[in-house]
Write a structure and sequence with these properties.
Distance between the termini of chain B: 32 Å
Distance between the termini of chain A: 28 Å
Strand order of the largest sheet of chain B: 1-2-5-4-3
Number of strands of chain B: 7
Helix content of chain A: 40-55%
CATH class of one domain in chain B: Alpha Beta
Shape of chain B: globular
Strand order of the largest sheet of chain A: 1-4-5
Number of strands of chain A: 10
Structural class of chain B: alpha/beta
Oligomer: heterodimer
CATH superfamily of the largest domain in chain A: Cytochrome-c3 Hydrogenase, chain B
Largest sheet of chain A: 3 strands, antiparallel
Low-confidence stretches of chain A: 1-7
Order of helices and strands of chain A: EEEEEHHHHHEEHHHHHHEEEHHHH
Number of domains of chain A: 2
Strand content of chain A: 5-15%
CATH architecture of the largest domain in chain A: Orthogonal Bundle
CATH architecture of one domain in chain B: 2-Layer Sandwich
CATH topology of one domain in chain B: Beta Polymerase, domain 2
Mean pLDDT of chain A: 86
CATH superfamily of one domain in chain B: NADH:ubiquinone oxidoreductase Nqo5 subunit
CATH topology of the largest domain in chain A: Cytochrome-c3 Hydrogenase, chain B
CATH class of the largest domain in chain A: Mainly Alpha
Largest sheet of chain B: 5 strands, mixed
Low-confidence stretches of chain B: none
Largest interface: A-B, 52 and 51 residues
Shape of chain A: globular
Radius of gyration of chain A: 22 Å
Radius of gyration of chain B: 24 Å
Strand content of chain B: 15-25%
Chain lengths: 386, 193
């Protein structure tokens, strides 16, 4: 029997006792469908307009990243790691650098650490802006998408001025950054933050999150309880929306997150509204962190430390490194046999793990809410399929 | 001719010579909490051993038949309380496949434990280990990925089939070291100057 042709009865879908069940019908959503954020196929079993089961079928963008990087040297891996989560590439390169630095005990100069944190938070802001736009589009509002993309371009322009690339940077090096930021960059960054906080963000609230239609549409839909989120290994805004205040930046501080003050926004009920509001608050927290980092930034210091050995060889063993990307905890498992490159690398992609919750979120909801629930998971297919 | 005005006014900085990093060798020393955890595990399960290959946290090596028991203990014991299964992955060592579970206690201490299992195998056979999907439902896709790419059979998994590769993929498991890429060689695109 071909995959996806199974028909689930109402009993299997846990909807016993409801009147008026019609014959369930299996519908393919995707892989080419604008609401699936890429090439994702959802095998949905529907009873009329109600979702009985939604099964994601992934792998359309699979390139076996883990096989390709076997035997590459560690610095070579950085640009290719960027392609995993292409909306927030800084986190991918930081993860590769961090795993080598942690394994070898390389300490960075303060200036490099602060700049890394600034870049990461700027990228988180951009990523959440894109989420804001696409989520609004998923639930049927077009205008916020245009607003979000308008504001995002300034952030991308800032990253481009410093790194030379708009989306895929290859900017972090093991031991620091490729180059220092240009003159006047920090001032422009502050202007951008002022603009975002004073003009752009209030518009977002006016357009969407303060809108009664939006709130009624999202409240109580796609509920994930605290225990379910924990059992499914969800991280990031999906887990925090369910009320678990877990954030790798707080739990295992890296960069300069130990020195700056910020809050970890949490939701209460774990519905679409909570996950959306967690991301909205995180945008403001990112602004707060960047402002403090600008204060912390020392005038002097090497951006690429000279303490890095010329030949990078990890001692034999396994290393597991994690950090907090906009989508959750992204982890890298490196197995080294003492050579120049990894024997095996495993990329723990937060989108991949969080996507498992979609079936749980969508059961018993309408098809339109399935799309909304998918929007609040905020998947990047480059990372899901690796 | 070099324009005089464009020359930098400040003299170039002297390079600062700093000691190079020396990678530590030998087993990583344990923190007091890790010592305590290892003791606690050894009292309960006399067969567990420390896996010194795990260098980023405390690694515990468990025989394959006891994996589920030990992982269930790590999840429910008040000392560990690892409610979060961060990662499940497998690596092929030629004659054995090693499966590694990374657990995090995310509610209180945020500390990390790794459990590793060695599964010996021969040739193309798929070694078996108990599935942990009834402890963590989220292990579902991780296990399917390990089955798909490395070739480990998880006993008791509800729906063990390929996840990333296509359903009818006949080429085996790509992350095995014995995997042969049977695709025809690709023409290299080189610009001739």
């Amino acid at each position: 029997m071909e995959k996806g042709s199974e028909v689930y009865t109402a009993e299997e879908a846990g909807r016993l006792g409801r009147e008026g069940i019609t014959e369930p019908i299996v519908i393919n959503l995707g892989p080419q469908h604008p609401s699936t954020h890429g090439v994702l196929r959802l095998i949905t079993t529907l009873d009329g307009e109600t979702v009985l089961k939604a099964q994601p079928d992934i792998g359309y963008l699979h390139r076996n990243w883990e096989k390709i990087v076997e035997g590459w040297q560690y610095p070579q891996i950085i640009p290719f790691a960027d392609r995993n989560d292409y909306i927030s590439a800084i986190f991918n390169e930081w993860l590769v650098c961090k795993s080598v630095e942690d394994a070898l005990g390389i300490e960075l100069d303060k200036r490099a650490e602060v700049l890394r944190t600034i870049f990461a938070e700027l990228n988180r802001l951009i990523s959440h802006q894109l989420w804001f736009g696409t989520y609004a589009m998923d639930i049927g509002a077009f205008t916020p998408f245009v607003y979000a993309l308008r504001d995002r371009e300034w952030g991308y322009a800032l990253l481009e001025k410093a790194t030379g690339a708009r989306q895929l940077y290859a900017f972090f090096r093991i031991g620091g950054l490729r180059n220092d930021v240009p003159d006047g960059w920090i001032e422009e960054l502050s202007q951008y933050l002022d603009y975002f906080e004073k003009e752009a963000y209030p518009q977002y609230v006016d357009l969407l999150t303060g809108n009664e239609i939006f709130i009624q549409r999202s409240e109580g839909v796609g509920v994930v309880s605290r225990d379910v989120a924990l059992a499914f290994g969800a991280t990031g805004p999906v887990l925090r929306g369910s009320g678990v205040p877990y954030d790798v930046r707080k739990a295992h501080p890296y960069g300069v997150y130990g020195e700056v003050e910020f809050e970890v926004p949490v939701g209460e009920h774990g519905d679409n509204l909570d996950r959306a509001m967690v991301r909205m608050k995180e945008m403001l927290e990112s602004v707060k962190i960047i402002r403090q980092c600008v204060e912390l930034l020392p005038e002097e210091g090497e951006v690429l430390t000279s303490r890095v050995p010329r030949v990078l060889k990890l001692p034999e063993g396994n290393y597991y490194t994690r950090l907090e990307s906009p989508r959750g905890e992204v982890g890298l498992w490196v197995v080294s046999t003492g050579g120049l490159g990894p024997y095996r690398m495993k990329w723990r992609a937060p989108s991949f793990v969080n996507l498992q919750l979609l079936d749980h979120m969508a059961r018993g909801e309408k098809v339109a809410d399935l799309i909304a629930a998918l929007g609040t998971i905020d998947i990047i297919l480059g990372e899901v399929d690796r | 001719m070099v324009d005089e005005e464009k020359q930098p006014k400040t003299p170039p900085k002297k390079p600062v010579v700093k000691p190079k990093v020396e990678a530590a060798s030998g087993p990583v020393p344990l923190t007091p909490r890790q010592e305590e955890g290892l003791q606690r595990l050894k009292e309960k399960f006399p067969f567990v051993e420390r896996d010194e290959k795990v260098r980023s946290s405390l690694g515990i090596q468990v025989p394959p038949e006891h994996v589920k028991e030990v992982l269930g203990f790590l999840r429910d014991d008040p000392f560990f309380r690892c409610r979060h299964l961060s990662c499940l992955s497998a690596v092929d060592w030629g004659e054995a496949i090693e499966v590694a579970y990374h657990l995090v206690n995310i509610e209180e201490k945020a500390d990390e434990w790794a459990v590793t299992v060695k599964l010996p195998y021969q040739g193309d056979e798929l070694p078996e280990v108990d599935s942990i999907t009834d402890l963590w439902p989220g292990a579902d896709w991780h296990e399917r990925e390990a089955y798909d790419l490395v070739g480990v059979r998880f006993k008791g998994h509800p729906d063990l089939r390929r996840i990333l590769l296509p359903e009818g993929f006949a080429g085996g498991h790509p992350l095995r070291k014995s995997f042969v890429d049977r695709r025809p060689p690709r023409q290299r695109l080189v610009r001739i100057r």
